[in-house]
Structure formats: C-alpha cells, structure tokens
Sequence to fold (58 residues):
Amino acid sequence: MANGRCRMHGGKAPGAAKGNSNALKHGRYTAEHIAERRHFAELLREMKGFIDEVDGKD
Fold:
C-alpha cells in the first residue's frame, strides 16, 4: 500500500526481518536452498537432453 502498511493486517513488513533465526522453521525457502533446487533442476534438464541426444530423439 502507498502508506507502507498492509491493507489487511496493518503491519509494516510483509514478513520476518532478514536474518531472523526465530522465523526459520525448515529452511526450504532460504536463498541457499532455492539456489540448490535450481541447480539440481538444471542438471536434470541437461541429463534429459543428453539421453534424448543418445537415443536419437530431437
């Protein structure tokens, strides 16, 4: 909102502050975990492409 507050709840921030270890429950949405998932997804895409290339599919 323009006034910096949530229109539904009135709070100023959309979530916990950066580095707030009390807000961390499982770490699934940390920057490191997201980067790791993206890396593995890229590896899977490369492997699938390699398999298709070996099988002769294009």
Remarks:
- The helical segments are 31-55.
- The two ends are 49 Å apart (CA to CA).
- The chain has one helix and no strands.
- Residues 31-55 form the longest helix (25 residues).
